[in-house]
Write a structure and sequence with these properties.
280 residues, alpha/beta, eight-stranded mixed β-sheet, 11 helices
Amino acid sequence: MARFTSFDGTQLAYREAGEGAPLVVLAGGPGRASVYLETLGGLDAHRRLIILDNRGTGESDEPADPFTYRRDMLVRDVEMLRRHLRLDVVDVLGHSAGAGIAMGYAADFPDRVGRLVLLTPALRSVGLSPEQSDWDTFLASRADRPWFAAATAALERNAAGDDSVENRVAASPLLYARWDERAQAHANAELGQWKYSVALGYNAEGAFVPGILRRAMEEFDHPVLVYACTVDPIAPVRRCAELAGLFPNASMYVHEGVGHYPWVEEPDQVAKQIATFLDG
């Protein structure tokens, strides 16, 4: 992996895959090494993917000050990566919590963003997190699955304070439409990819000021794709539609029958849809 020095002297790592116009890719978790993104279903056949390991994850170093794990601070790492790459403008894709970083980057550096992809985005940063009714509807739709009791028990443990990676993985069947061998392997890999301290820092006090970010998105007139999936409790379709409505120039794609990691379940469709949007 290649490395660069960010704003505070922390050494960060990124990997490249494919050729063509660059696409900066931001991982979620928060706190998960970017390797879980793989090549986003083969998107590297269409674009030169520049996939950043957020500070403290994967091959990137831990910062001296954990304050810099905060979502709004991670935006600065994206800008330092752009400068390192010597690119005037970059297309940006953020997955899940990475979408919060991507929107922050678009807000703070709008002239440096070409096209913006928000892939099954976490929505807290713009005040659109799923409501209890969204969770109730989703859980009811999955209640007949053989893994349901164990996965929802993990959710209850999380609500009671169990933030371990083992508990996260125990709840992860809820994030896939099909809990097959491919999904299980992808979920289990998180055991060696996620760091609690990074996730805690991402969500630290002051990281989210939804009103300010919403107003910035209302002024961001570059093309935006909001990519929603129908079996995703993190980014319900109705809330993604509200997100798309914030932007003056957004389109929304709804991928039927897949969960929070759509490239794991239907990779060709993911790569096709995103490439089509990026190509204009």
